[in-house]
Specification:
With 360 residues, the chain is α/β, with parallel strands linked by helices. The chain is built from 13 helices and 13 strands. One of its GO terms (cellular component) is plasma membrane.
Protein backbone atom coordinates (compact mmCIF):
# COMPACT_ATOMS: atom_id res chain seq x y z
CA UNK A 1 0.00 0.00 0.00
CA UNK A 2 1.48 3.34 -1.06
CA UNK A 3 1.01 6.86 0.29
CA UNK A 4 -0.50 9.67 -1.73
CA UNK A 5 3.08 10.64 -2.66
CA UNK A 6 4.33 7.95 -5.11
CA UNK A 7 7.93 8.57 -3.98
CA UNK A 8 7.16 7.65 -0.36
CA UNK A 9 6.63 4.03 0.69
CA UNK A 10 4.94 2.90 3.91
CA UNK A 11 6.82 1.54 6.90
CA UNK A 12 6.05 -2.10 7.76
CA UNK A 13 4.14 -1.86 11.05
CA UNK A 14 3.66 -4.52 13.72
CA UNK A 15 0.95 -4.11 16.36
CA UNK A 16 -0.86 -5.90 19.16
CA UNK A 17 -3.97 -6.19 16.97
CA UNK A 18 -4.85 -5.92 13.27
CA UNK A 19 -7.07 -2.93 14.19
CA UNK A 20 -4.04 -0.94 15.34
CA UNK A 21 -2.10 -1.86 12.22
CA UNK A 22 -5.00 -0.83 9.98
CA UNK A 23 -5.24 2.58 11.69
CA UNK A 24 -1.53 3.43 11.38
CA UNK A 25 -1.45 2.24 7.76
CA UNK A 26 -4.46 4.42 6.93
CA UNK A 27 -2.92 7.45 8.69
CA UNK A 28 0.36 6.95 6.82
CA UNK A 29 -1.47 6.77 3.51
CA UNK A 30 -2.79 10.29 4.14
CA UNK A 31 0.55 11.79 5.14
CA UNK A 32 0.67 11.13 8.91
CA UNK A 33 3.36 8.49 9.20
CA UNK A 34 4.42 6.93 12.49
CA UNK A 35 8.23 6.90 12.37
CA UNK A 36 9.24 5.91 15.89
CA UNK A 37 7.46 4.58 18.98
CA UNK A 38 9.08 3.94 22.36
CA UNK A 39 7.66 3.76 25.87
CA UNK A 40 8.54 7.43 26.32
CA UNK A 41 7.87 9.15 23.02
CA UNK A 42 6.34 9.03 19.53
CA UNK A 43 7.77 10.57 16.36
CA UNK A 44 5.29 11.29 13.56
CA UNK A 45 6.01 12.61 10.08
CA UNK A 46 3.18 15.10 9.52
CA UNK A 47 2.97 16.10 5.86
CA UNK A 48 6.77 15.95 5.58
CA UNK A 49 7.58 17.56 8.96
CA UNK A 50 8.72 15.33 11.81
CA UNK A 51 7.27 16.06 15.24
CA UNK A 52 8.03 14.42 18.57
CA UNK A 53 5.34 13.78 21.21
CA UNK A 54 6.26 12.67 24.73
CA UNK A 55 4.15 9.80 26.12
CA UNK A 56 3.48 10.90 29.71
CA UNK A 57 0.96 8.25 30.68
CA UNK A 58 -1.22 5.46 29.35
CA UNK A 59 -4.53 4.17 30.70
CA UNK A 60 -5.06 0.68 29.31
CA UNK A 61 -8.41 -0.64 28.12
CA UNK A 62 -10.57 -2.36 30.72
CA UNK A 63 -13.98 -4.01 30.51
CA UNK A 64 -15.63 -1.41 32.78
CA UNK A 65 -14.55 1.74 30.92
CA UNK A 66 -14.41 0.09 27.46
CA UNK A 67 -11.90 2.71 26.34
CA UNK A 68 -8.21 3.56 26.61
CA UNK A 69 -6.33 6.86 26.74
CA UNK A 70 -2.89 8.35 26.37
CA UNK A 71 -1.57 11.66 27.76
CA UNK A 72 0.89 13.38 25.43
CA UNK A 73 3.28 16.27 25.81
CA UNK A 74 3.04 18.06 22.44
CA UNK A 75 5.74 20.04 20.57
CA UNK A 76 3.92 23.32 21.35
CA UNK A 77 4.41 22.62 25.10
CA UNK A 78 0.74 21.76 25.67
CA UNK A 79 -0.61 18.61 27.32
CA UNK A 80 -3.39 16.63 25.66
CA UNK A 81 -5.33 13.48 26.45
CA UNK A 82 -6.46 11.32 23.52
CA UNK A 83 -9.14 8.68 24.13
CA UNK A 84 -10.49 5.89 21.93
CA UNK A 85 -13.18 3.36 22.71
CA UNK A 86 -16.62 1.92 22.08
CA UNK A 87 -19.30 4.40 21.03
CA UNK A 88 -21.55 3.40 23.94
CA UNK A 89 -18.97 4.56 26.46
CA UNK A 90 -17.32 7.36 24.44
CA UNK A 91 -20.46 9.41 23.84
CA UNK A 92 -20.98 9.58 27.61
CA UNK A 93 -17.66 11.44 28.03
CA UNK A 94 -17.93 13.67 24.94
CA UNK A 95 -18.92 17.30 25.63
CA UNK A 96 -22.16 17.45 23.64
CA UNK A 97 -22.22 21.26 23.86
CA UNK A 98 -19.29 21.36 21.44
CA UNK A 99 -19.45 20.44 17.74
CA UNK A 100 -22.98 19.05 17.94
CA UNK A 101 -23.17 18.71 14.15
CA UNK A 102 -19.98 16.61 14.12
CA UNK A 103 -21.31 14.43 16.95
CA UNK A 104 -24.55 13.75 15.05
CA UNK A 105 -22.65 13.05 11.83
CA UNK A 106 -20.32 10.67 13.67
CA UNK A 107 -23.28 8.81 15.19
CA UNK A 108 -24.75 8.39 11.70
CA UNK A 109 -21.41 7.18 10.33
CA UNK A 110 -21.01 4.64 13.15
CA UNK A 111 -24.47 3.26 12.45
CA UNK A 112 -23.62 2.97 8.75
CA UNK A 113 -20.25 1.33 9.48
CA UNK A 114 -21.83 -1.15 11.89
CA UNK A 115 -24.53 -2.08 9.37
CA UNK A 116 -21.75 -3.01 6.93
CA UNK A 117 -20.18 -5.28 9.55
CA UNK A 118 -17.26 -2.97 10.36
CA UNK A 119 -15.69 -2.77 13.83
CA UNK A 120 -16.06 0.78 15.10
CA UNK A 121 -14.13 3.06 17.44
CA UNK A 122 -14.79 6.65 18.51
CA UNK A 123 -11.85 9.01 19.16
CA UNK A 124 -11.90 12.10 21.37
CA UNK A 125 -9.40 14.57 22.81
CA UNK A 126 -9.04 17.55 25.11
CA UNK A 127 -6.26 19.88 26.13
CA UNK A 128 -5.20 19.87 29.77
CA UNK A 129 -4.29 22.99 31.70
CA UNK A 130 -1.01 22.98 33.61
CA UNK A 131 -2.85 22.52 36.92
CA UNK A 132 -4.99 19.67 35.50
CA UNK A 133 -1.89 17.93 34.22
CA UNK A 134 -0.07 18.27 37.54
CA UNK A 135 -3.08 16.93 39.42
CA UNK A 136 -3.41 14.00 37.01
CA UNK A 137 0.33 13.28 37.14
CA UNK A 138 0.50 13.08 40.93
CA UNK A 139 -2.64 10.90 41.06
CA UNK A 140 -1.34 8.66 38.27
CA UNK A 141 2.04 8.17 40.00
CA UNK A 142 0.37 7.35 43.31
CA UNK A 143 -2.03 4.87 41.70
CA UNK A 144 0.70 3.22 39.60
CA UNK A 145 2.83 2.51 42.68
CA UNK A 146 0.01 1.46 45.01
CA UNK A 147 0.44 -2.00 46.52
CA UNK A 148 -3.26 -2.54 47.23
CA UNK A 149 -6.15 -1.84 44.85
CA UNK A 150 -3.92 -0.57 42.03
CA UNK A 151 -6.35 -1.44 39.21
CA UNK A 152 -9.28 0.33 40.90
CA UNK A 153 -7.16 3.41 41.64
CA UNK A 154 -5.91 3.61 38.04
CA UNK A 155 -9.49 3.23 36.80
CA UNK A 156 -10.55 6.15 39.00
CA UNK A 157 -7.68 8.33 37.74
CA UNK A 158 -8.62 7.48 34.15
CA UNK A 159 -12.27 8.32 34.79
CA UNK A 160 -11.31 11.73 36.16
CA UNK A 161 -9.27 12.67 33.08
CA UNK A 162 -11.43 11.03 30.38
CA UNK A 163 -14.26 13.56 30.32
CA UNK A 164 -15.51 16.70 28.53
CA UNK A 165 -13.80 15.51 25.34
CA UNK A 166 -13.90 17.10 21.91
CA UNK A 167 -14.92 14.49 19.36
CA UNK A 168 -12.32 13.85 16.66
CA UNK A 169 -14.20 11.23 14.68
CA UNK A 170 -14.73 7.50 14.28
CA UNK A 171 -13.11 4.59 12.51
CA UNK A 172 -14.61 1.55 10.81
CA UNK A 173 -12.36 -1.46 10.23
CA UNK A 174 -13.27 -4.56 8.25
CA UNK A 175 -12.96 -7.79 10.22
CA UNK A 176 -12.64 -10.29 7.38
CA UNK A 177 -13.98 -13.80 7.79
CA UNK A 178 -11.47 -16.53 7.12
CA UNK A 179 -12.20 -18.90 4.29
CA UNK A 180 -14.60 -21.69 5.23
CA UNK A 181 -16.11 -20.01 8.31
CA UNK A 182 -19.75 -19.90 7.03
CA UNK A 183 -19.56 -23.53 5.94
CA UNK A 184 -18.05 -24.60 9.30
CA UNK A 185 -20.80 -22.85 11.29
CA UNK A 186 -23.47 -24.35 9.05
CA UNK A 187 -21.99 -27.83 9.56
CA UNK A 188 -21.92 -27.42 13.35
CA UNK A 189 -25.58 -26.44 13.43
CA UNK A 190 -26.55 -29.26 11.06
CA UNK A 191 -24.82 -31.66 13.47
CA UNK A 192 -27.14 -30.47 16.26
CA UNK A 193 -24.57 -28.31 18.03
CA UNK A 194 -26.02 -25.07 19.36
CA UNK A 195 -23.78 -22.17 18.35
CA UNK A 196 -23.56 -19.09 20.56
CA UNK A 197 -21.48 -16.11 19.49
CA UNK A 198 -20.06 -13.87 22.23
CA UNK A 199 -18.52 -10.69 20.85
CA UNK A 200 -17.48 -7.24 21.96
CA UNK A 201 -18.68 -5.77 18.66
CA UNK A 202 -21.53 -3.30 18.34
CA UNK A 203 -24.96 -4.86 17.79
CA UNK A 204 -25.32 -3.84 14.13
CA UNK A 205 -21.81 -5.14 13.41
CA UNK A 206 -22.53 -8.45 15.14
CA UNK A 207 -25.80 -8.95 13.23
CA UNK A 208 -24.14 -8.15 9.90
CA UNK A 209 -21.34 -10.63 10.58
CA UNK A 210 -23.98 -13.12 11.74
CA UNK A 211 -25.58 -13.03 8.28
CA UNK A 212 -22.27 -13.20 6.39
CA UNK A 213 -21.15 -16.20 8.47
CA UNK A 214 -24.52 -17.96 7.95
CA UNK A 215 -25.14 -17.96 11.69
CA UNK A 216 -28.28 -15.88 11.07
CA UNK A 217 -30.68 -16.46 8.19
CA UNK A 218 -33.58 -14.43 6.83
CA UNK A 219 -35.99 -17.19 7.91
CA UNK A 220 -35.19 -16.64 11.59
CA UNK A 221 -37.31 -14.54 13.92
CA UNK A 222 -35.02 -12.25 15.90
CA UNK A 223 -35.65 -11.54 19.57
CA UNK A 224 -33.59 -8.52 20.62
CA UNK A 225 -33.07 -7.59 24.27
CA UNK A 226 -31.51 -4.20 25.02
CA UNK A 227 -32.44 -3.24 28.57
CA UNK A 228 -31.13 -0.55 30.89
CA UNK A 229 -32.55 -1.79 34.21
CA UNK A 230 -33.23 -5.02 36.04
CA UNK A 231 -37.02 -4.57 35.87
CA UNK A 232 -37.00 -3.98 32.12
CA UNK A 233 -34.71 -7.02 31.71
CA UNK A 234 -37.19 -9.15 33.63
CA UNK A 235 -40.12 -7.97 31.51
CA UNK A 236 -38.19 -8.42 28.26
CA UNK A 237 -37.11 -11.94 29.21
CA UNK A 238 -40.63 -12.99 30.24
CA UNK A 239 -42.13 -11.64 27.00
CA UNK A 240 -39.36 -13.26 24.95
CA UNK A 241 -39.84 -16.68 26.59
CA UNK A 242 -43.55 -16.60 25.75
CA UNK A 243 -42.83 -15.55 22.15
CA UNK A 244 -40.15 -18.19 21.65
CA UNK A 245 -42.45 -20.96 22.97
CA UNK A 246 -45.23 -19.88 20.61
CA UNK A 247 -42.84 -19.94 17.65
CA UNK A 248 -41.44 -23.37 18.52
CA UNK A 249 -44.61 -25.07 19.83
CA UNK A 250 -45.30 -26.79 16.49
CA UNK A 251 -42.40 -29.20 17.03
CA UNK A 252 -43.80 -30.82 20.16
CA UNK A 253 -40.31 -30.71 21.64
CA UNK A 254 -38.70 -27.32 22.23
CA UNK A 255 -35.25 -28.86 22.23
CA UNK A 256 -35.44 -29.37 18.46
CA UNK A 257 -35.05 -25.61 18.25
CA UNK A 258 -31.45 -26.16 19.23
CA UNK A 259 -29.02 -26.75 16.41
CA UNK A 260 -30.87 -27.61 13.20
CA UNK A 261 -34.55 -26.66 13.38
CA UNK A 262 -37.32 -29.01 12.31
CA UNK A 263 -39.56 -28.30 9.34
CA UNK A 264 -42.51 -27.18 11.47
CA UNK A 265 -40.49 -24.86 13.67
CA UNK A 266 -39.87 -21.17 13.16
CA UNK A 267 -36.18 -20.78 14.08
CA UNK A 268 -35.54 -18.12 16.72
CA UNK A 269 -32.37 -16.06 17.15
CA UNK A 270 -31.76 -14.35 20.48
CA UNK A 271 -29.69 -11.16 20.29
CA UNK A 272 -28.76 -9.63 23.64
CA UNK A 273 -26.28 -6.92 24.62
CA UNK A 274 -23.75 -6.64 27.41
CA UNK A 275 -25.70 -3.91 29.21
CA UNK A 276 -28.62 -6.32 29.68
CA UNK A 277 -26.30 -9.11 30.82
CA UNK A 278 -25.05 -6.86 33.63
CA UNK A 279 -28.48 -7.22 35.26
CA UNK A 280 -29.00 -10.87 34.31
CA UNK A 281 -25.76 -12.71 35.13
CA UNK A 282 -25.31 -13.67 38.81
CA UNK A 283 -28.96 -12.86 39.56
CA UNK A 284 -32.28 -14.70 39.65
CA UNK A 285 -32.79 -13.70 36.01
CA UNK A 286 -30.16 -16.21 34.86
CA UNK A 287 -32.75 -19.00 34.89
CA UNK A 288 -35.09 -16.99 32.63
CA UNK A 289 -32.25 -16.31 30.19
CA UNK A 290 -31.40 -20.02 30.11
CA UNK A 291 -35.04 -20.94 29.46
CA UNK A 292 -35.16 -18.45 26.60
CA UNK A 293 -31.84 -19.55 25.10
CA UNK A 294 -32.99 -23.20 25.22
CA UNK A 295 -35.80 -22.29 22.81
CA UNK A 296 -33.49 -20.52 20.36
CA UNK A 297 -31.55 -21.87 17.40
CA UNK A 298 -28.90 -19.16 17.75
CA UNK A 299 -27.75 -16.93 20.59
CA UNK A 300 -25.78 -13.79 19.71
CA UNK A 301 -24.37 -11.76 22.60
CA UNK A 302 -22.87 -8.43 21.55
CA UNK A 303 -20.99 -5.68 23.37
CA UNK A 304 -19.98 -8.24 26.02
CA UNK A 305 -16.98 -7.76 28.30
CA UNK A 306 -14.39 -10.56 28.62
CA UNK A 307 -15.64 -11.64 32.07
CA UNK A 308 -19.23 -11.72 30.79
CA UNK A 309 -18.14 -14.26 28.18
CA UNK A 310 -17.00 -16.55 31.00
CA UNK A 311 -20.27 -15.85 32.87
CA UNK A 312 -22.33 -17.01 29.90
CA UNK A 313 -20.33 -20.25 29.66
CA UNK A 314 -20.92 -20.80 33.40
CA UNK A 315 -24.65 -20.18 32.87
CA UNK A 316 -24.81 -23.21 30.55
CA UNK A 317 -22.40 -25.44 32.52
CA UNK A 318 -24.33 -24.99 35.77
CA UNK A 319 -27.68 -25.98 34.25
CA UNK A 320 -26.96 -28.78 31.81
CA UNK A 321 -24.82 -31.88 31.49
CA UNK A 322 -23.90 -30.76 27.96
CA UNK A 323 -20.24 -30.29 27.17
CA UNK A 324 -19.25 -26.71 26.36
CA UNK A 325 -16.66 -25.85 23.73
CA UNK A 326 -15.28 -22.31 23.46
CA UNK A 327 -13.27 -21.10 20.47
CA UNK A 328 -11.49 -17.74 20.47
CA UNK A 329 -8.57 -15.94 18.86
CA UNK A 330 -7.69 -13.04 21.16
CA UNK A 331 -6.87 -11.97 24.72
CA UNK A 332 -10.53 -11.00 25.24
CA UNK A 333 -11.45 -14.68 24.82
CA UNK A 334 -9.08 -16.09 27.47
CA UNK A 335 -11.60 -16.15 30.36
CA UNK A 336 -14.19 -17.83 28.11
CA UNK A 337 -11.70 -20.46 26.91
CA UNK A 338 -10.65 -21.27 30.48
CA UNK A 339 -14.25 -21.55 31.72
CA UNK A 340 -15.41 -23.99 29.02
CA UNK A 341 -15.03 -27.77 29.29
CA UNK A 342 -12.93 -27.64 26.13
CA UNK A 343 -11.13 -24.46 25.13
CA UNK A 344 -9.68 -23.91 21.67
CA UNK A 345 -7.38 -20.99 20.87
CA UNK A 346 -6.75 -19.89 17.31
CA UNK A 347 -3.36 -18.44 16.50
CA UNK A 348 -3.45 -15.51 14.10
CA UNK A 349 -3.19 -11.76 13.83
CA UNK A 350 -4.76 -11.28 17.28
CA UNK A 351 -1.71 -12.87 18.95
CA UNK A 352 -1.20 -16.09 20.93
CA UNK A 353 -2.92 -15.31 24.26
CA UNK A 354 -5.93 -17.45 23.34
CA UNK A 355 -3.68 -20.35 22.26
CA UNK A 356 -1.71 -20.27 25.52
CA UNK A 357 -4.98 -20.45 27.51
CA UNK A 358 -6.42 -23.33 25.46
CA UNK A 359 -6.59 -27.05 26.27
CA UNK A 360 -3.87 -28.08 23.85
Amino acid sequence: MDTLDPNVKLVDYQGESPDEQALVYAAAAYGFMLIERTSGHIVIDIQGERQRFNVLGLHEFDSDRKRMSVILGCPDKTFKVFVKGADTTMFSVIDRRLNLDIIRATEAHIHAYSSLGLRTLVVGMRELSASEFEQWHSSFEAASTALIGRAALLRKVAGNIENNLIILGASGIEDKLQQGVPEAIESLRTAGIQVWVLTGDKQETAISIGYSSKLLTRKMTQIIINSSSKDSCRRSLEDAVLMSKKLTMFSGDTHTARGSSGDGVTPVALIIDGSSLVYILDSELEEKLFDLASNCSVVLCCRVAPLQKAGIIALVKNRTADMTLAIGDGANDVSMIQMADVGVGISGQEGRQAVMASDS
